[in-house]
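Predict structure. Chain length: 241.
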Amino acid sequence: MQLTYYGHSTFHVDVDGTELLVDPFFDNPKTDADPEELDPDYVLLTHGHADHIGDVDRYEGTTLVATPEIVSYCRDEFGDFDAVGGMGMNLGGTVEVGEAFVTMVRADHTNGMDTDYGATGGMPAGFVISDTKPTQVSDADSQSFYHAGDTSLMSEMRDVIGPFLEPDVAAVPIGDHFTMGPAQAALAVDWVDADHAVPIHYDTFAPIEQDPEDFSREVAATGSDAEVTVLDGDETLDLDE
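Prediction complete.
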C-alpha cells in the first residue's frame, strides 16, 4: 500500500493497483501537483466542506464513496458520478472497491454544504482503507490506513476503530480550532494503536498553523510506540518498504 500526501487532508492511496483519492483539495500551499494528472478509480469524501471536496468536479465519471447525501449533492452540483454499489454508503459499512476494502467510520464534526438552501451531507466520516476485508479475526499480514477526516477525539477510536479495524497508519488532524489539536490527536493515535502516525489538516490557513514537532512530542508523551511520519506535500509513505 502506498500513501501519497498532497497537503491538507488529501491523500492518494494505491492498494495493489486500485487507486483511491481521499478529499481532493489541491488549492493548498503544500502541493505542486496537477490534479488533472491523477486518474483515481474511486474518490472518497469524508464530508462536504469546501476544503475537502474542492476539486471533486475534476473527477466526473469516477466512482464516489461517500454518504448518500454527499453523493447526491455532488451529482447535482458537479456532474455525473457513479456511486459505489449504485448508492452512497454510510457509517459502519464496508464496501469492496477493486483490490481494496473501505470501511466508513464516525467523525465528530459538522457537515453543512455551502449552498443557498443550507444542504447537509449527513454525518461526517472517516475511512479505514485495507487490503483485506475486516473481520473479528486479526490478520497480521493485512495493511490498513485510517483517514480520520475532520474530527475531535472520540471514544470510538479506542473502542471500535483500534481493536476491530487495527489501522497500521493513522492520519489525524492536528490543526486545532476546527478539529483536534496536537494533544488530542496524539491520544487518538495511542487509542487506535497505530504503528505510524501522520499529521494532517494543518498549516493550510492561518487559524490552523501548527508545528508538527509538537504533535511528535505529544505522541511520545502518551507512551505510544507509533512512529510519527511528517509527510511533505507530494511525498509518499510506502508500507511495503
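Summary: The mean pLDDT is 95.
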